[in-house]
Amino acid sequence: MNAGSISRARSLRKHATEAEIRLWHYLRNRQLGGWKFRRQFPVDRFITDFACIDAKLIVELDGSQHAENAHADAERTRILERCGFRVIRYWNADVLKDTPNVLEDILAHLEMRK
């Protein structure tokens, strides 16, 4: 981790989306099944939205701009998977409208990693 990625991660934490704030409320402090998450965590050349290091799971939240960037997102996922992580993605709207089901799905992915 270099100084540039640390600075960028701090900036992203300060300017979090509403969906990121909502999800972090439930992921922080081991609230989801006792799993520890980090937010805006650097992996390779990317800064991931949320990462559970113990489960090698990355949770990415996508806004509407990602609909046009599907190719870039797919490449990002391939690189993160090469780093040993499994990547799951949710639309911001789903996090905001259906938080309990998103949390249930994340927990199911975590339990698969035990």
Give a quick summary of the entry:
The protein has 114 residues and is an alpha+beta fold.
- Overall geometry: globular
CATH superfamily: VSR Endonuclease
Radius of gyration: 13 Å
Largest sheet: 4 strands, mixed
Ranges where pLDDT stays below 50 over 5 or more residues in a row are none
State the share of residues found in helices, binned by percent. 40-55%
**Termini Cα gap:** 27 Å
Strand order of the largest sheet: 1-2-3-4
What this model shows, in words?
- This protein has helices spanning 3-14, 18-27, 70-82, 92-97, 99-112, and strands spanning 38-43, 46-52, 57-62, 86-91.
- The radius of gyration is 13 Å and the shape is globular.
- A four-stranded mixed sheet has the order 1-2-3-4, with helices on both faces.
- It is of the alpha+beta class.
- The protein has a single domain (3-112), classed as VSR Endonuclease (Endonuclease, Chain A).
- It is 48% helix and 22% strand.
- A hairpin with a 4-residue loop joins strand 2 (46-52) and strand 3.
What key phrases describe this protein's structure?
114 residues; alpha+beta; 5 helices; 48% helix; globular
Please render the helix and strand layout as text.
Layout: H1 3-14, H2 18-27, E1 38-43, E2 46-52, E3 57-62, H3 70-82, E4 86-91, H4 92-97, H5 99-112
Parallel strand pairs: 3-4
Antiparallel strand pairs: 1-2, 2-3
